[in-house]
Amino acid sequence: MPTLKTTLEQWRVLQAIVEHGGYAQAAEALHRSQSSISYMVARLQEQVGVQLLAMEGRKARLTESGKALLAQAVDLLNDAAKLEQRAAQLEHGWEAEVRLVVDAALPTPLLLDALAQFTRVAGQTRLQLTEVVLSGAEEALAGQRADVLVGTRVPAGYLGNLLLDVDFIAVAHPSHTLHRLGRELDGDDLRREMQVVLRDSGTVNPRDEGWLGSAQRWTVSSLETSAAMVADGLGFAWLPRHLIQRRLDEGALWPLPLSEGRIRRVSLYLTFGSQEGAGPAARQLAQVLHQSAQAYAASAANALR
After folding, report:
1. Any bridge partners for residue 167, and if so which?
2. Left, alpha or beta for 144 (phi > 0: left; psi -120 to 50: alpha)?
3. Residue 100, Cα to own-chain centre: how many angstroms?
4. How much is the pTM?
5. CB 141 within 8 A of CB 149
6. Residue 160 per-residue DSSP state
7. How does 127-145 read in b/e, with b if 16+ C-beta sit within 10 Å?
8. 162-175 pLDDT per residue, tens
9. What is the Cα–Cα distance from 196 to 236, expressed in whole angstroms?
10. Structural domains of the chain ordered from first start
11. H-state helical runs in 59-160
């Protein structure tokens, strides 16, 4: 094994100087003396054999060599932090808190069943639950705000498993103009009517999904609001079957007789925020979510027979 000349602490000091803009600011942030900060950086530059920092007035800036080396060092610092976090988990057992992020399309009864099971085996673990729409799931992962995620996609660089398929049905109020046509519908019929669509909760790279061909659209932030508006005759929409099944059974909503696209199937995937560092509580939560999803899917299939 090669002998290391530098330490992670030296690189952490260099990172602090860059982030905070100078030696004095880094010393304050790290609760060290400015002289010790200066010594560590000078020693680091001596050990690597290249200049890492250059002063511009009172501002410390990285040289090109410094940028290249610090970029790799940051990866090492992050890995070290993950290693220490994992060690703490092993020392103290289950995580004190698990952050669960779910797409709004996940059926609420399924979620509640899974959480009830989770509470029985992990009652000491706090839970933070966040509901998102479309790209909001990927943003939660990218921002490291999720330990367990249920979303419509598995982001690049992550591994995930299929949790559940959700059917979205095109529907409108029985008295809606589209139903009064009394025939099979196509895209031209839909384009002339108001469509109610769901807003992407993501802000970095928001995206659209499904048919969005209507000239006039109302955009809302929740599926429940969308269902209420459609049930009140204000437009048409594709809505999750589980959310509107009661209204379908009661005749408050009718499926649109489309020639194509009556049902749009959306797959939900379960992904860990950290594949390597997922703790026992996060893995237990994932397990009960899969169990509840299987039971929910079986129950829904029986109900449709």
Report:
1. 265
2. left
3. 9
4. 0.66
5. yes
6. E
7. beeebbbbbbbbbbbeeee
8. 999 999 999 999 99
9. 6
10. 8-92 (1.10.10.10), 95-305 (3.40.190.290)
11. 64-92, 108-121, 136-142
